[in-house]
Design goal:
The protein is an alpha/beta fold. It has twelve helices and 14 strands. The protein has three domains: 155 residues, Rossmann fold; 179 residues, Argininosuccinate synthetase, chain A, domain 2; 30 residues, no CATH class. The strands form three sheets. The chain has a five-stranded parallel β-sheet with strand order 3-2-1-4-5, with helices on both faces. The protein has a five-stranded antiparallel β-sheet with strand order 10-9-8-13-14.
């Protein structure tokens, strides 16, 4: 069964786990390994992955290191933002939304180099294995998928380290001790899970956080920021046009400096268990607040309510790994159609952990002061409300009369 794999594309970080996986693939499948490392703005240098892959015997033409930051924000984060997406009401899906892009690029590389398999380093307990593999199969139905954590007997950190030492795989000093938690990072967020965080009653240590100051330690003076939108997408900060990745980077800095974007969450994994995760999503939190404020001014009431009703389903599809499914694409088409008038500027106050909307304006505003004023006006006849109320009350009155007669 293992001998029929000739070439495999591995999602490779250069860390301990994927380095062990690389050697294990070479030994177990006797195949050629192609490494793929994605720069999604995780905040750490990805170039050393090339040297590590070379040390493991990978040819230069089979080492792929791609800067995907702009594509990630433009084609994945922003479409999700247009839907005001929150999983289970709070989670901005920072890990989930990165997986389809990685899967997409892996399949592209597999096609380019003639690989007959792809591999990932996700464990058999988590959501990521589902997200990666649903993406693989949606884009290349006949691809062979290798998931080492579901196959090998390296079931503990001790065994993993012993395997690495036996095969002279370089081990970073901080990997020899038991890590206090696992992390996943990209330009949208960083997550912390496991180990020291497994007890949901225990508060995380303050020194764990890397993208935000504690709200109580944030500046005593607020920061004001203006975000410009075009067709639902943010395009500028304080009047300066920025690319998607540059814009999110700028807002990450502003929001993080003001203690914004932390979330401590117990969520329902797709595989069936509950897990506790702690997240930092500073810029994404600000964008989520700003986008909803822009919609409040420009979006028709029932169009907005329809979007809100569909959003939990849309969020669930992304969380569960169905980015490339036809139902997600259909929902995206509906969402994007509603975004045509979502243009203008939102002004926010960032202060000690909160992002508060303090102003909004748009050339497509549906807000009409002539109608909403409490002063005397000539456009709204208040007597019209009586018939409107009676018509809406009719079914309630009929039901009440029927109950009275029974």
């Amino acid at each position: 069964m293992t001998g029929d794999v000739k070439r495999v594309v591995l999602a490779y970080s250069g860390g301990l786990d994927t380095s062990v996986i690389l050697r294990w693939l070479q030994e177990t499948y006797a195949c050629e390994v192609v490494t793929f490392t994605a720069d999604l703005g995780q905040g750490e240098e990805v170039a050393p992955a090339r040297d590590k892959a070379r040390l493991m015997g990978i040819k230069d033409e089979h080492i792929f290191i791609d800067d995907l930051r702009e594509e990630f924000v433009r084609d994945f984060v922003f479409p999700m933002l247009r839907a005001n997406t929150l999983y289970e009401g709070t989670y901005l899906l920072g890990t989930s939304i990165a997986r389809p892009l990685i899967a997409k690029r892996q399949i592209e590389i597999a096609n380019q180099v003639g690989a007959d398999a792809v591999a990932h380093g996700s464990t058999g307990k988590g959501n990521d294995q589902v997200r990666f593999e649903l993406g693989y199969y949606a884009l290349k139905p006949d691809i062979r998928v290798i998931a080492p954590w579901r196959e090998w007997d390296l079931s503990s950190r001790t065994r993993l380290l012993a395997y690495a030492e036996e095969r002279q795989i370089p081990i970073a000093k901080d990997k020899r001790g038991e890590p206090p938690y696992s992390t996943d990072a990209n330009l949208l967020h960083i997550s912390y899970e496991g180990k020291a965080l497994e007890d949901p009653w225990v508060e995380p240590d303050e020194d764990m956080f890397t993208r935000s100051v504690a709200p109580e330690r944030a500046p005593d003076q607020p920061t004001y920021v203006e975000i410009g939108f075009e067709r639902g997408d943010p395009v500028s900060v304080d009047g300066k046009a920025l690319s998607p990745a540059a814009l999110l980077t700028r807002l990450n800095q502003l929001a993080g400096d003001n203690g914004i974007g932390r979330l401590d969450l117990v969520e329902n994994r797709f595989v069936g268990m509950k897990s506790r995760g702690v997240y930092e999503t500073p810029g994404g939190t600000v964008l989520s607040v700003a986008h909803r404020a822009m919609e409040s001014l420009t979006l028709d009431r029932d169009a907005g309510h329809l979007k809100d009703g569909l959003m939990p389903r849309y969020a669930e599809l992304i969380y569960n790994g169905f980015w490339f499914a036809p139902e997600r694409e259909a929902l995206q088409a509906l969402i994007d159609q509603t975004q045509e008038p979502v243009n203008g500027v939102v002004r926010l106050k960032l202060f000690k952990g909160s992002a508060t909307v303090v102003g909004r304006k748009s050339p497509n505003s549906l807000y009409n002061q002539d109608y909403v004023t409490f002063e005397e006006d000539s456009v709204y006849d208040q007597r019209d409300a009586e018939g409107f109320i009676k018509l809406n009350a009719l079914r309630l009155r009929l039901e009440a009369m029927a109950r009275r007669q029974s």
